[in-house]
DNA sequence: CATGGGATTGACT
DNA sequence: GTCAATCCCATGC
């Protein structure tokens, strides 16, 4: 992955990240669900402007923004757009690839579909903690690599973001069509119908 | 310095 | 379907 990939508009990056591979600590997975956030809309942490917390979101592209959610979970974002613009893509779900036994130990669950099917689950499965906030996604320890050949032409669908109260109507969530590793809550009634048809 | 809310998850009815 | 866990940080006194 090149630095320029992350400098593009955040909606483009969110769509293009689906199919890319996240690796950390002996485990990896293909991104199957993302959400875009931009400082111009109130659901984004950077909406309030530059603070100690949001400094990384306004920083150079290609870095990791990690925050604690509900006091319990860590959530992973990729910082986008040129430095000075607050934009990031939340990684919401992965299809597990490498280190599946490690993921099972870290998560304490067996079922493959339960390992990385949510933003808090995947950071636990890949052992990604808040201490990696601000780290470089091109240099590591967390690395995001381009789509494998098999994912080159993945069908990506846009829909509404979930789990938020502000600006929830924006269709800024991007999912791999029909994938079985999406976050469970991410499936709208329409998408469940689509999946049923796909089977 | 005290308070309140949140880009979630899992357990339970 | 409901609900609590639990911590970071922004805000207001």
Q: What's this model, at a glance?
A:
Helices cover 19% and strands 26% of the residues. By secondary structure, it is of the alpha+beta class.
Describe this structure in words.
- This protein has 199 residues and is an alpha+beta fold.
- It is built from 5 helices and 8 strands.
- The protein has helices at residues 3-7, 10-17, 100-107, 119-125, 189-198, and strands spanning 21-24, 27-38, 64-69, 73-79, 87-98, 143-145, 156-159, 173-176.
- Strands 1, 2, 3, 4, 5, 6, 7 and 8 form an 8-stranded antiparallel β-sheet that branches.
- It is globular, with a radius of gyration of 16 Å.
- It starts with a helix and ends with a helix.
- 42% of the residues are buried.
- The model has no long low-confidence stretch (mean pLDDT 93).
- It binds a DNA duplex (13 and 13 nucleotides) through strand 3, strand 4 and helix 4.
Strand-helix topology:
Layout: H1 3-7, H2 10-17, E1 21-24, E2 27-38, E3 64-69, E4 73-79, E5 87-98, H3 100-107, H4 119-125, E6 143-145, E7 156-159, E8 173-176, H5 189-198
Antiparallel strand pairs: 1-2, 1-6, 2-5, 2-8, 3-4, 4-5, 7-8
The protein binds a DNA duplex (13 and 13 nucleotides) through residues 35, 37, 43-45, 48, 51-53, 67-73, 75, 77, 90, 92, 118-121, 130, 161-165, 183, 185.
Rg measurement, Å: 16 Å
Question: CA-to-CA gap between the ends?
Answer: 33 Å
Q: What order do the helices and strands follow?
A: HHEEEEEHHEEEH
* Quaternary assembly: single chain
Mean pLDDT: 93
Low-confidence runs of at least 5 consecutive residues: none
Q: How many runs of DSSP E, i.e. beta strands?
A: 8
């Amino acid at each position: 992955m090149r630095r320029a990939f992350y400098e593009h508009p955040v909606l483009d990056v969110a769509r293009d990240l689906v199919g890319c591979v996240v690796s950390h600590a002996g485990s990896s997975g293909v991104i199957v669900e993302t959400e875009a956030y931009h400082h111009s809309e109130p659901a984004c942490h950077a909406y309030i402007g530059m603070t100690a917390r949001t400094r990384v979101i306004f920083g150079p592209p290609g870095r990791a923004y990690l925050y604690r959610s509900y006091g319990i979970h860590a959530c992973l974002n990729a910082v986008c757009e040129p430095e000075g613009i607050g934009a990031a893509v939340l990684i919401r779900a992965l299809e597990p690839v490498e280190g599946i036994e490690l993921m099972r130990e870290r998560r304490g669950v067996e079922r493959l579909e339960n390992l990385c099917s949510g933003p808090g689950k995947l950071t636990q499965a890949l052992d990604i903690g808040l201490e990696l906030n601000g780290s470089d996604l091109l240099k590591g320890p967390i690395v995001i690599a381009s789509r494998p050949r098999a994912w080159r032409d993945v069908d990506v669908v846009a829909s509404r973001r979930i789990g938020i109260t502000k600006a929830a109507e924006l269709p800024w969530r991007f999912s791999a069509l029909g994938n079985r590793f999406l976050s469970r809550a991410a499936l709208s009634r329409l998408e469940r119908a689509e999946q049923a048809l796909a089977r």
